[in-house]
Amino acid sequence: MARQIGAVQARIEYTGIAAVVAALRAMPLERAVRAGARLGGWAMNFDRPNRRIALTNLEIAFPDYTVQARLGILRAMYKSWGRMLAEWTHFGDLSRATIERVATYEGKQHWDDAERKSKGRGLLVLSGHYGNFELLQLAHSIYGYHIAIVHRALRNPLIDAAVCGARVRYGNRVIERKAGGAEMLRMLRKNWMIAIALDLDVRKGVFVDFFGKPASTSDGMARLAVAMGTPVVPVFMVRQGDTIRHKIKILPQIEIVKTRDREECVRENTQRFTNTLEQMIREHPDHWNWIHRRWKTRPPGEHRFY
C-alpha cells in the first residue's frame, strides 16, 4: 500500500481536483471530453518529474523511436487521461439504458466461452492501467457482470474514497491488494470474477520479460489460476479515436501451463499474461500509463533506471 499523505495536503489536492471535476461535470459529455483532452495536454507541460520517468520508459520500450515520436505518444497519453477524467465526472449518468452509447463489447464470445469452462470457479480478468480502465469496470457491472477489483490504495485517502465509491456504484466489490489472497480465493469459490491489473512493479514478484527487459511482476494471478483451475480472460478498454465511444475488447482465454515445477509454472504463466499486456500496449501506446516506474525493481546486480 502506498503511504498516505497528510490530512492538510490531502484536502488541498482534493479541493483543487474537485473544482476541475465540477467544471467538467457541468458540461455536456462530448464537450467535457474535448476540454479534458486540452487539460491533459496542458498538464504535460508542467508535470516535469513524471515526464522524465515516462520518457525513460518510452526509451526502454521503443528504443528505435525518435525523441519526437516518444513525446507524441506521451502527449497523447496525457490527453487520454484528461478525457478519462471528464468521463469519470459523468459516470453518474450511466445506466443500462445509456451504457451502449459509450461502451460496447468486442469479442464477447470469449467471455461467454470462459464462463462455460469455469464450472463455478469464477473468472480471472487480466487487465492493466490501460485506456479508461475506470469506465471498463463500471461498464461491466452495468451490463450485469459484477467484478471484484484488486485495488492498491491511492496516497490521497479522499481521492481514494471517491474512486472506490464510483467503482462499487453498480455492484462491484473492491479487494485491498495487501493481504488480499485469502479474499480472492474465497470469492472465486463463490464464482466471482476478479480483475487484476498486472502492469505494476512489485518488490516481491517474479521477473518476466516486458519490452525486452526483466520486470518484477505479481505472480498472484498465475498462482490462483494454477491452484483453482480458473480461466484467465484478457479484457481492455479501447477508445474509438478521440470520441466518447469505447470497445470493451475481450481476447481469447489464455491457456494455463501446468508442470511439476510449480515456480517455473508460475513464471511461465505470468510471462504469458505479460505478453498479452505488451501486445495491447504496442497496438495503442497512448492508452498505457507511462509515468509508472515499471522497471524500478531490478534483478540482483542490474543498474536502476530511475
Biggest sheet: strand arrangement: 1-9-8-2-5-3-4
Query: What fraction of residues sit in β-strands?
Result: 15-25%
Distance between the termini: 20 Å
> Quick check: average pLDDT?
94
Per DSSP E runs of 2 or more residues, the count of β-strands stands at 9
* Low-confidence residue ranges: none
Give the ordered list of helices and strands.
HHHHEHEHEHEHEEEHEEH
Q: How big is the Rg?
A: 19 Å
Q: How many H/I helices?
A: 10
What would you call the structural class? alpha/beta
What's the helical proportion of residues?
40-55%
Shape assignment: globular
| Main β-sheet description | 7 strands, mixed
List keywords for this structure.
306 residues; alpha/beta; seven-stranded mixed β-sheet; two-stranded antiparallel sheet; 10 helices; 9 strands; 15% strand
List the helices and strands and how they pair.
Blueprint: H1 7-25, H2 29-46, H3 48-61, H4 67-88, E1 103-106, H5 108-118, E2 123-127, H6 133-142, E3 147-151, H7 157-167, E4 173-176, H8 181-189, E5 193-197, E6 206-210, E7 213-217, H9 220-228, E8 232-239, E9 246-250, H10 262-283
Parallel strand pairs: 1-9, 2-5, 2-8, 3-4, 3-5
Antiparallel strand pairs: 6-7, 8-9
Structural summary, described in words:
The structure is a single chain. With 306 residues, the chain is an alpha/beta fold. It is built from 10 helices and 9 strands. It has helices at residues 7-25, 29-46, 48-61, 67-88, 108-118, 133-142, 157-167, 181-189, 220-228, 262-283, and strands at residues 103-106, 123-127, 147-151, 173-176, 193-197, 206-210, 213-217, 232-239, 246-250. A 7-stranded mixed beta sheet has the order 1-9-8-2-5-3-4, with helices on both faces. It has a two-stranded antiparallel ribbon with strand order 6-7. Helix 2 (29-46) crosses helix 4 and helix 9 (220-228) packs across helix 10 (262-283). The longest helix has 22 residues, at 67-88. The chain is globular and about 55 Å long.
